[in-house]
Amino acid sequence: MGQKIGSAFIKNFILNLANVVILQKGYLDDLDAACGDGDFGVGMYIGFENVKKAIEQKDEEDLGHIFDEAGHAILSSVGGASGVLFGTLFIEAGKVAGTKREIDLNDLSNMMRASLEKICQSGGSKQGDKTLIDALWPAVESLEDAAKRNLDLTEALLMAANAARRGAESTKDLIAKQGKARYLGEQTLGHVDPGAELIRLIFETLFATYESTGGTS
């Protein structure tokens, strides 16, 4: 395995992700309108605008601080459960990264596992509840499997992105059991959960950034 990604790459990835989320504001709102308040995209737009500002203004090299800055930028500007859960995703990953300036695939899988476990604990959700966990869980398991098999980062990140995509798509066939959407019952069938779709965007952007840079910038 041996391949590592450093702080410059992670900053680049987070900025790329922020741009993707900002561009997808309307799409994410449309997904949310089917089963919720229709403002998920707006909230994440605001959150990731703040993420961009936080990351662009910092010269911090420790990965823990970079992820923590991104997480708190979301947490401080996005209301409701979405802000808490996606803020937690970055903050918990940062705790595992700590003062490291480079991480390998095993580190990354450990970071995402910590995020997943904290999100499950905080939100009280599990697989099958039609939430972001339905995309995050398989992506994390894919990373862990790739780490055990000593796959290279390109293959590992592609596998995780595909797992997140399949997980997000699977929410079409689920009935919401968490959040406001749970009150709609079977009306939520046939609609992708917006949180799960954002997880897909996160892992697809991570792969795309690595593929385009080789993890060097």
Unreliable stretches = none
Q: What is the CATH H-level superfamily?
A: DhaL domain
Count of DSSP strands: 2
**Radius of gyration from the alpha-carbon trace, in angstroms:** 16 Å
- Which secondary-structure class do the elements indicate? mainly alpha
Number of domains: 1
Mean pLDDT: 90
CATH hierarchy: architecture: Alpha Horseshoe
Structure overview:
The chain is mainly α and 217 residues long. It has a single domain, classed as Serine Threonine Protein Phosphatase 5, Tetratricopeptide repeat (Alpha Horseshoe), CATH 1.25.40. The protein has helices at 7-23, 25-35, 40-56, 63-75, 80-97, 105-123, 133-148, 153-170, 194-213, and strands at residues 5-6, 102-103. Strands 1-2 form a two-stranded antiparallel ribbon. Helix 1 crosses helix 9 (194-213) and helix 7 runs parallel beside helix 9 (194-213). The mean pLDDT is 90.
